[in-house]
Predict the 3D structure of the following.
Amino acid sequence: MESILATIKAEHEIIREALSLTAESKIDLKRELYQTARDLLIYHMMSEEVSIYRKLETEDVNTAALIHKLYEEHQEVKEDLQRLNLLRCEDPHWQIFLYQLMEKVEDHSMKEEEDLFFEAKEDYSRSELVDMASDFHQGKHTNRHLIPTSI
């Protein structure tokens, strides 16, 4: 089984592709593709928070500060998703907000893949990281009902 780090990295790529496909699609497909990308992103963030953020936030002061910043970025993404939900895809601002979201997601993903992964490798064994991947998938499955439909 793969580690939590490989799982997160693979999902980052799926989310990037889903958002890119949404941005490039014709107007009649945008809303549906956006909803799929949004759901992938929300499930991913929630799973990260319960599987790896909670474990790492207690490691040391520097790691706790990093995790706090990542939580804040998740909140910003959720707010951006709410903004997109309120607009029609035909609204010229919708596409602008989507590109801003894509940039934010890209920056956040890079921060996780560089800084968070470094901390996780420092603090946990390969076996523990594999166990976290199992927690990640389990959290995604068990917490699906907790995802707010308004985001």
Observations:
- The chain is about 85% helix and 0% strand.
